[in-house]
Amino acid sequence: MENKTFNVAVMGAGNIGSAVISRLMNLDKGIVGLNVKRVLVKDKSKKREISDDILTDNFDDILNDDSIDLVIEVLGGIDPGKDYIKALLQNGKAVITANKDIIADSGSDLINTAKENNACLYFEAAVAAGIPVLKPIIESLRGEELTKVSGIINGTSNYMLTSMEEGSTYDDALSTAQELGYAEPDPTNDVEGLDAKYKAVILSLLCFGTSPTSDDLFTDGISGITKEDFEWAARLGKTIKLVAQIDNKNGFNARVHPVLIDTKHPLAAIRGALNAVVVEGDNINQLVFSGPGAGAEPTASAIIGDVLSACHQLSSDQTNWYPLREFKGEMKNFEDVQSSMFIRLSVNDEPGVLANISGTFGENNVSIESVIQEGRGDKAELVLVTHEAPEKDIKNSIDQISALDSVTTVTSTLRVYV
Amino acid sequence: MENKTFNVAVMGAGNIGSAVISRLMNLDKGIVGLNVKRVLVKDKSKKREISDDILTDNFDDILNDDSIDLVIEVLGGIDPGKDYIKALLQNGKAVITANKDIIADSGSDLINTAKENNACLYFEAAVAAGIPVLKPIIESLRGEELTKVSGIINGTSNYMLTSMEEGSTYDDALSTAQELGYAEPDPTNDVEGLDAKYKAVILSLLCFGTSPTSDDLFTDGISGITKEDFEWAARLGKTIKLVAQIDNKNGFNARVHPVLIDTKHPLAAIRGALNAVVVEGDNINQLVFSGPGAGAEPTASAIIGDVLSACHQLSSDQTNWYPLREFKGEMKNFEDVQSSMFIRLSVNDEPGVLANISGTFGENNVSIESVIQEGRGDKAELVLVTHEAPEKDIKNSIDQISALDSVTTVTSTLRVYV
């Protein structure tokens, strides 16, 4: 590794691309010799701090240059990056990408392409940016049967939930996140859980050997969460987090949704734009990896880590991939997943209401763990937490309860992290 | 990796050795083919669940067997393991060890031996047992300039401190830890910080390229901590943890001692026998790795992870080691380290006492952050927290204060984690 200089191409020169190029150029030569040979951009004429000689707008200049050892893809979006990565791997080049969309869409196919061509493919930055968690999962923990992997893997929504925990409204939390550049002008991907969902698909592939389809992966976001939900959470010794859960304990299911989580759980301590991934298995109990989940510098750090791994691996002429895990488990639909549900209702303050409501749960075989009822004039606020029961039974109960004459509104429903 | 069967020898068949052998024998052949060819024991006649054919009491049977690809060392102690590991590396065999004593003593030498012989050396289990943290530090984070690494890396003392936080006395916490097998009959290594010190030396080598000597690494244990210290910690919004700190921000210093730490710090949440390592750098901010820090199964998990890495690496005929970090920094003696100190004194409740004490600090250029004085009959309890100042100035102040007529006892001194 010490004696060779590796030629690198970077595809994309946006925020992350620029951070990566600068880090590559300043990397201590005592670690590895690197030469940035090509940078692929859309528009060569745009002003940049990159020498004109190495700029190109033609992918073939990279694909067909036999002297290029490894290529970093930071274009964003699925096309044309996905086809580029595949072609590069087929040409035996090492590829490093930060692109969660591509890996969620085609991770398994691209890993197989890498293996067939004795090529290297790395994507540490695609999940939880600056936290080195994928390599430990792929390599160090490959011998473990994992039972559950969960995580806070969207920094924007966690930043907003942390603000709300401290008293902000949802709208204030969102505008601050937008001002700070954490949230996009259209925040849908972050606040509706879609970004976390792509990352959950990648974790699922690496930890359990299966990539759930979009339909199989129940996803709910944080846009319905209110300050009042946080006040109730605090009364119960809990807070609210958007958590991805991939569970293979009693049947396999992956899902992303907000949860009420005990303040003593390690994920409850993950504040602001931080990310964390919790990996569980019989031998290792519970491992927690936490750190910065977004931003150009942490993302560049993950990419540089991958570059070093690739350079070390390249002289061996073999893929970096250990055999992928084979899926062992039984797919469980979300409606069969066991959940404990927190339910907040506005009801008429009159005799028999609680009996009606608890009767409805009983008919659906859902038992109730705790109830708090508080008068609000001629209305009352009723807060119930159910024991674990299948999602479909809980859903039926809530549908029937919301149709009761004495129930004005189902104000909110939140799953409890168990 | 998939098509070859690797021959493995295990040196040592105690608790950990037995767990490792059982895991090796039951490992999914789809990951890698492994054959346990030899197990080195002291006494072959002892009854074990290991076939007689593979037992040996002669190290040369392993060293000179060319068919053995990799050797796992779990003998314990420095001798003869250290010489064995060196000889095996010189014969080109991959070596995996869980032995913190050997790596703290000779890590740098053994790594160089591995590199010179294109051999592999792994020791993930030597620090924080089941947490995959060394590989991320060695590989994923090799491109980062780290500023500080700290951690709770002794499970026994953390178990005891957690019990004390919950109200136990030191003696009760120790006897429970001994009953549960967390603490040895002679608990010195754990409670006096020696175990954590060895691990700090290893972290220092990997993170900063230098192995501090025993004299350079200030070490203090938990045997002086009392219930009353915890009560005071709670009043200040803090708890007490035994933390190893290796700091290269303003000069380099490594040290292990108990600290008063804010309950919101990630290390404060590490409870019971868990371990955690916090890695800091400008680009990555703060990464936290936590999980089980001891026990046969987590240790075996780390060793199996190393076995998989070794098998993957072996077909490349090159060492697993990236260039070690070069030490960049200026060694700072512990007496020059800046500390903030919590000091609890029993004093005579008479005029002028506080003036005398604060005057003494002032003469030593130590400024005081907070003071609480509480009457206890004709005595008073005085609790001071200093701002950060050099250790030697704080020590001088305390020496002079303890000699004052109005000061009965310096009840306790604890550094505050800053």
Question: Can you put this structure into words, describing what you see?
Answer:
The structure is a homodimer of 418-residue chains. By secondary structure, chain A is α/β, with parallel strands linked by helices. Chain A folds into three domains: 5-129 and 296-314, NAD(P)-binding Rossmann-like Domain (Rossmann fold); 137-291, Dihydrodipicolinate Reductase, domain 2; 336-416, ACT domain (Alpha-Beta Plaits, 2-Layer Sandwich), CATH 3.30.70.260. Helix content of chain A is 34%, strand content 27%. Chain A has helices at 15-26, 60-63, 81-90, 100-116, 134-140, 155-165, 170-179, 188-191, 194-208, 227-235, 296-314, 353-363, 391-402, and strands at 5-11, 33-40, 55-56, 70-73, 94-97, 121-122, 146-152, 218-219, 238-247, 253-262, 274-281, 285-292, 338-348, 368-376, 379-386, 389-390, 407-416. In chain A, strand 9 and strand 10 form a beta hairpin. In chain A, helix 3 (81-90) packs parallel to helix 4, helix 6 crosses helix 7 (170-179) and helix 12 (353-363) runs antiparallel to helix 13. The interface between A and B is large, with 56 and 56 residues. Strand 12 of chain A pairs antiparallel with strand 12 (285-292) of chain B.
